[in-house]
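Honest question from a wet-lab person: if I give you the sequences of every part of a complex, can you actually get the arrangement of the whole thing, not just the pieces? Trying it with mine:
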Amino acid sequence: MIPSNDEIIRVNDLEKRFGPFVAVDKISFSVKKGEIFGFLGSNGSGKSTTIRMLCGIISPTSGQGVVAGHDIFRESEKIKQSIGYMSQRFSLYEDLNPYENLRFYLGVYSVPQPQWMERISWILDMTRLKDVSRRLTRELPPGWRQRLALGCALLHRPDILFLDEPTSGVDPITRRNFWRFIGELASEGITVFVTTHYMDEARHCGRIVMINEGRIVATGSPADIIRQSCPDKPDADLNDAFVTLMARRVC
Amino acid sequence: MNLRKILAITRKEVYHLIRDARSLYLAFAIPLLLILLFGYALSLDVDNIKTVVVDHDNTDLSRDFVRRLNASTYFSVTAHLPDSRTVTQYLDHSRATLAIIIPPKWTQTIRADREATIQVLLDGSDPNFAGITRGYITAFVDRYNQKSLIEFLNRQGMEKIRPPVEGRIRVWFNENLESRNFIIPGIIAIIIMIVGAMMTSLVIAREYENGTMETIRSLPVSGNEFMIGKAIPYFFIALTDVLVAVLMGQVLFGVVMKAGFLLLILASSIYILVALTLGLLISVVTKSQLVANQAAVLITYLPSLLLSNFVFPVVNMPKVLQLLTCVVPATYYIEILNGIYLKNMTLAQMWPNYLVLIGMFVFLVLLNMLFMKKEGF
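Yes, you can. This is the full assembly:
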């Protein structure tokens, strides 16, 4: 399978089973270079399983997939090198300070040493953490830790940024700033693949895939999805669409 | 395998270490404590046995007997008691472990060439100690008899009588039979297990508990790089502890190494690697610091203490346990250390033990790789 030129992620019939349980049921979709791609679904719908397959953390049961030009079955190491991943718990090392956390990431991504200082000050500026770079991460407020986690994922200049529920547990202002920042990243050409269940956030996405019980139930721009799922309600929003789509399959 | 990635993990691990007072305590304070405790407290030597005497005879001869007993380094006569009832009190309250009762008219009986007896009472509540004491007192009485006999015969005019057989005993390797010479190598083996296996058993479990394992999996780091990076700081800590233990053994206890220092470092390095891989394996399998710690005590520390020929002699154990001692790494390491410390042995004589340890290390590495693969590395 060869993805077309502007497709940076392409999966066909991707399936993941855990024993008899089908977590992801033969899904197919593609993501274009530089877009903000929303991957939406309720808890346990298969969102995280999919994102973990795309990041090379777990390997799929069957199907095909290419991420940043690398096969998800055979080249997970190369995929990991060309993506940044931030999980919902922004799992940082809390007994290390931001500076040391960043150094750790630079090391494991094999960034050449002469570039280290430049990269670190770039990220510290961008995340506005310069003043606290020597304070232990566990002492920082959640919003700041979230920025640091994002910085760690961007440090090696990845092609794709995977964000697994990046805004869970942070306040609305921080969330708004966060999305503004994601927009800036996309405009610089970085592809952003994001899962969330805050529908107001999903408006920021260029394209959305909705997944329920391991299957794709809708694809398209936010407006498309609203129109498809609630054709008879002109004032419907993404929340209504989500509720309709998730309910349809459960019954 | 990428050295830069390994060192990044090592550096991170060092930060964890220096910011966690508990692990520093485990790394350096516990070994020092163990050396001091074992070195001073765990003496397996039996001497100055507290002895009380009831001398009903009270003649020159009986007093001479008691004097000789007291002159021996093994016995120390702490009290002369008037009767047997007080002896019972002394033994009851552990104020003495050995009592000698010389009956009335003892000298008369001897002089009349009839068999004279003395009563020896032993506190058997510590069977090991009592057994050794019994050996000592039996030997003492035998020698006393021999001496009396020769004196008697000499007095009868038979000059220069010698006993027909005299055992000339020489102890090899540990000439003064000091248990310290044996204990120091044993403590080193225990310390390495504590520092190597118990500490590393926590390190991967900690990543699971903090949720950082998910991050590690998303990074371009292989399972081997991850394991090696994590093990490096603990390898050097354990090696430092070995050197400290050797030094303390020399300075505090006068236990001097006879064979090569390099042989010691080689054996210790291999044994440390065994301990580290064992700890990491426990960590990957259990994924919880609490369970890992319990498992490490059960799998690494206790067998090293109990089944390694260190405190309890393996030859006295039932066959099943004897077989079990064959899979305890400490058994082989302690044998090497005793060879180095006491017997001045060379690699040519000890290589089978080295080989077994290397074999164990390779086996554990393969097992680790298997489990890491199962975890998706």
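Two things worth pointing out. Chain A has nine helices and ten strands. The first strand of chain A starts at residue 7 and ends at 18.
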